[in-house]
Each structure stands twice: as C-alpha cells, then as structure tokens.
Design goal:
Layout: H1 10-19, E1 29-32, H2 39-45, E2 49-52, H3 57-68
C-alpha cells in the first residue's frame, strides 16, 4: 500500500490491519514515493517492509515471494 490514499493514510490503515486479530498475520509492504525518513513510522505502525518508488516489478516480486515463504523481506535485494 501507499502512504497517500483517498480515505485514510497508509500508516492508519496498517495500524488497523495489525490491530485486528483476524488480520495480524497479514504482511504489509509500504510502497511509496515518500522519503525514507518515514520508514521508522511505518515500522512502528506494523509494516513488514518499506520500499520507495520507483521500484522495479521484479524486485517487488522477490520481496513478496520472500515474505510469502516466511523468510521476511529479501534483505539482499537493493531497495530502489
């Protein structure tokens, strides 16, 4: 998800997802054009990964696959 969304901001959305017992295990990737200074706020809200646009689709796919396999974010992939 992005930080800037029409109804609520991404940080609030993440907090709501992680606060719901049924959704707590949902992995959340924040893909945004905002500065990395917001990465700490995103992590505190419960984001599993913070990526800055532009991000190559192949790299996003690698991160998604790593998260789906329970490996956590693919740390060896340079974040773009």
């Amino acid at each position: 998800m992005d930080l800037a969304m029409p109804q609520i901001d991404g940080l609030t959305a993440i907090q709501r997802i992680k606060a719901d017992a049924r959704l707590q295990q949902t992995r959340v990737i924040l893909l945004t054009g905002y500065h990395f200074a917001l990465e700490k706020s995103a992590q505190e809200a419960g984001a599993d990964l913070f990526l800055r646009k532009p991000c190559l689709p192949e790299r996003l796919e690698q991160h998604v696959n790593a998260l789906r396999q329970g490996q956590g974010p693919a740390r060896d992939i340079p974040v773009t």
